[in-house]
């Protein structure tokens, strides 16, 4: 796995946006496992003393581009280690970009118009802390190829789907001034067209691209995102209903090199769908009132460490941690990610387990030095902790945290993280 340190990524994006490519790409980090993968048949041990080897979970990015060259949707696909199926993650085109230094909020989608696909790819990698195996921008015809052969999908739109088209007046108008004929260039006229009404409906595969590309003039992206999520959920249900069990021997082992092939591999198996939470950036951070949204960084890490840890990039100074939760509650897991981060522990692998919670949280360590660093502050942010030597090492993981009832009780009684904790910074 190769990745780009956060500060270097921001500098590289800045260089691309200014037309100068001046930074090099450096490898950092390690390969991490994925949610529920430690018991996967794809993982193996070389011998009894070796670290558990974790199968890869490659990630890819799809940007959909309309006929005027604007990105209308962004989606990340993560391939299951079994080679088919995986996770579809929807995020706003207007997600707030990482920036080197101060400045008003900037949309990651704008980088495509200014500097092309490479800049947009770097923006998404920085936002999600992942390395993408492939990234492409597809138009309506190319999307048709990606969706070809899929069954009809049931979707539901909370509001009508309206697309604004720019039409040229016909014939071109002319005016005459002071006896000299002067041709006035005709200006395009914006026309709103209702494509689909609000409510539930069935869409054919040929209609899927319309949902991803349709855009009403001045419509906030927050109004479009629910129907994009509905489309992906509809596809997930439809493909599951028509699937037959795959023979592992017939599943390709190589990572797809094109986004179309990547999507088809994901569509061929069980799919889960997630749309990143987002909040409109307001006030001094967004003086121009742009349609820009802030993501929740701890939700982002929770999702990516659960489904795409082999693609995850961590700061070089981070202590990578495996997090197991027996609560099957995303709010509890997110809280753990945030609180561990506040004391310099970076969650790199998350599993939701079916085990009965222990009374206290258990912190398994690989090196006593980690305990010496973490013990002083851990109980101030996650409650009572029992420390034990790590019994089974996982490649790239420095510690293993198994949440207990003490954590859930502590978070309920102490909802605010102490301000005296040291938040891990980027180097």
Could you say which overall geometry the principal axes of the C-alpha atoms support? globular
Q: How much helix, percentage-wise, in residues?
A: 25-40%
Total number of strands: 18
Let me know the average pLDDT.
83
Over the alpha carbons, how many angstroms does the gyration radius reach?
Answer: 24 Å
The CATH superfamily of the domain at 51-168 and 190-296 is known as LCP protein
**Physical arrangement of strands within the biggest beta sheet:** 4-1-2-3-11
Instruction: Give the second-level CATH assignment, the architecture of the domain at 51-168 and 190-296.
Output: 3-Layer(aba) Sandwich
Q: Which regions contain 5 or more consecutive residues with pLDDT less than 50? A: 1-5, 11-49, 421-427
Q: What is the CATH topology of the domain at 51-168 and 190-296? A: Aminopeptidase
Structural class estimated from helices and strands: alpha/beta
Helix-strand topology string: HEEEHHEHEEEEEEHHHEEEHEHEEHEEH
Portion of residues in beta strands equals 15-25%
Largest sheet: 5 strands, mixed
In CATH, what is the class of the domain at 51-168 and 190-296? Alpha Beta
Count of separate DSSP helical elements: 11
The end-to-end distance, rounded to whole angstroms, is: 20 Å
Give an account of the 3D structure:
By secondary structure, the chain is α/β, with parallel strands linked by helices. It has a domain at 51-168 and 190-296: LCP protein (Aminopeptidase). It contains eleven helices and 18 strands. The radius of gyration is 24 Å and the shape is globular.
């Amino acid at each position: 796995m190769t990745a780009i340190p956060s500060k270097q990524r921001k500098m590289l994006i800045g260089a691309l946006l200014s037309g100068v490519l001046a930074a090099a790409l450096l490898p950092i980090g390690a390969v991490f496992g994925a949610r529920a993968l430690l018991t996967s048949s794809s993982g193996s041990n070389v011998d009894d003393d070796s670290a558990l080897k974790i199968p890869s979970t490659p990630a890819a990015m799809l940007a959909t581009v309309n006929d005027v060259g604007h990105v209308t949707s962004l989606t990340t696909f993560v391939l299951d280690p079994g080679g088919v199926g995986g996770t579809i993650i929807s995020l706003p085109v207007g997600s707030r970009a990482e920036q080197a230094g101060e400045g008003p909020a900037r949309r990651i989608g704008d980088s495509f118009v200014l500097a092309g696909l490479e800049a947009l790819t770097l923006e998404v990698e920085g936002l999600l802390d992942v390395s993408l195996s492939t990234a492409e921008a597809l138009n309506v015809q190319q999307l048709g190829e990606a969706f070809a052969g899929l069954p009809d999908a049931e979707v539901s739109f909370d509001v009508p789907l309206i697309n604004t088209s720019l039409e040229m007046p016909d014939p071109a108008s002319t005016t005459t001034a002071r006896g000299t004929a002067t041709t006035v260039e005709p200006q395009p006229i914006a026309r709103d067209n209702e494509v689909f009404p609000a409510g539930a409906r069935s869409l054919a595969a040929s209609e899927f691209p319309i949902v991803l590309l349709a855009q009403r003039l001045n419509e906030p992206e927050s109004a479009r995102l629910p129907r994009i999520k509905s489309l992906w959920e509809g596809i997930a249900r439809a493909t599951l209903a028509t699937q037959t069990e795959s023979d592992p021997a017939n599943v390709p082992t190589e990572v797809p090199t094109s986004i179309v092939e990547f999507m088809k591999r994901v569509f061929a198996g069980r799919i889960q769908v997630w749309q990143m939470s987002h909040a409109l950036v307001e006030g001094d951070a967004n003086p121009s009132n742009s349609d820009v949204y802030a993501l929740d960084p701890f939700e982002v890490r929770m999702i990516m460490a659960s489904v795409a840890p082999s693609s995850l990039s961590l700061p070089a100074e981070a202590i990578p941690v495996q997090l197991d939760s027996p609560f099957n509650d995303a709010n509890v897991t997110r809280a753990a990610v945030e609180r561990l981060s506040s004391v310099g522990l970076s969650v790199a692998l998350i599993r939701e387990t079916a085990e009965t919670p222990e009374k206290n949280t258990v912190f398994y360590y690989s090196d006593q030095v980690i305990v010496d660093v973490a013990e002083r502050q851990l109980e101030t942010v996650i409650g009572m902790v029992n420390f034990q030597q790590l019994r089974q090492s996982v490649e790239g993981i420095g510690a293993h945290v198994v949440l207990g009832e003490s954590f859930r009780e502590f978070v309920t009684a102490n909802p605010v993280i102490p301000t005296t904790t040291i938040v891990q910074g980027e180097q």
